[in-house]
Amino acid sequence: MTQSATAQLSPAAFTPSAMALDDALLARARASLSRLPLDIDRLRPSFIASALTRRCISLGLAQTADYLQFIDNVAPGQGEWQQLLHELTVHDSWFFRHPPSLRCLQYLLSEHFSGSQALHLWSVGCANGEETWTLAMVVAESLRIAGTDRHWRLTGSDLSKVCLQQASAGIYRRSQLQSIDSDLRRRYFRNLDPQRMQVADELRRHAGFTQVDITRGGFADAGVHVAYCQNLLIYLADDARRCALENLAASLVPGGFLLLAPGETRDWLPPGLRRLREGGVELFQRKW
Ligand SMILES: C[S@@+](CC[C@H](N)C(=O)[O-])C[C@H]1O[C@@H](n2cnc3c(N)ncnc32)[C@H](O)[C@@H]1O
Asked: What is the CA(278)–ligand 1 centre distance, in A?
């Protein structure tokens, strides 16, 4: 398709049937998308079709075939591949999502890491930052209540660079902050405009965000005291899930903890970890 032809197309010109994937196009799409660090064969055709449709609309392309031709000529890892990766992953998240795990984190902070050493926490598959900033509030509150001042840092990582930008900015609509206790909201967010608030510098100075594919490699900066990885492993095939768990285990300091969401390991225990499952929490500790 020529540039002038694409420029004339508006999103309104699209109909769902125009973007349907027949078997041949689906096979072609899967072949192109196999360059992404995703298990493309596990993705439903309708999910792939919707993602490709959204990218076509964004770029003003009329047909999925045009998009596949376009993306095949973009260098891997570059802008459009990042957008597509974002469209092909699920980013649902909210603040204070799993209270039992957060209470467990509070307990770990007070009982296992009560000394003065610097702490490193890792929010793995952090989506748009809701989880990372939740963890930041839990740590900051634990230290405030204990009356201790110590160094701590929090890394948020995700596959999607689009997510990481949002997470790092820490800007949310007020409606997204409703699950946060009002005192915490006042303490750790500042008003940005009538609709939005931003995470306060007091938390932001402790946090950094980086792109990590947890199935393909570890986290370069290991030495993690608590890795928090929830609602990510469920999207992975068994092999990828095992790689991810091994990478998570390897990132921990001896005695460090891993908190998954309930049921995410399918009872497979990564080497070097012991399971401490209690009270609806999926907790592991790296052996010394
Ligand atoms: C459903 S969200 C969960 C967000 C948050 N952890 C929570 O529980 O609310 C899953 C996140 O995992 C990310 N993700 C998926 N596969 C990944 C991988 N292989 N490595 C790192 N992040 C991944 C997705 O981009 C998405 O943002």
From this structure: 24
Residue 94 falls within a domain, yes or no? Answer: no
Which of 39, 42, 88, 158 gets mutated to test ligand 1 (max ligand atoms within 8 A of its CB)? 158
Residues 280 and 233 in one domain: yes
How many residues appear in the chain?
288
Owning domain of residue 48: 3-87
Residue 155 and residue 55 share a domain: no
Contact 36, 68 (CB under 8 A): no
Residue 30 lies in a domain: yes
pLDDT in tens, 101-160: 999 999 999 988 877 789 999 999 999 999 999 999 999 999 999 898 899 999 999 999
pLDDT digits (tens, 9 = 90+) for 44-68: 999 999 999 999 999 999 999 999 9
Predicted pLDDT of residue 227: 97
Asked if residue 92 is part of any domain, the answer here is no
What residues have CB less than 8 Å from 207, skipping those under 6 apart?
Answer: 132, 133, 136, 153, 154, 155, 156, 168
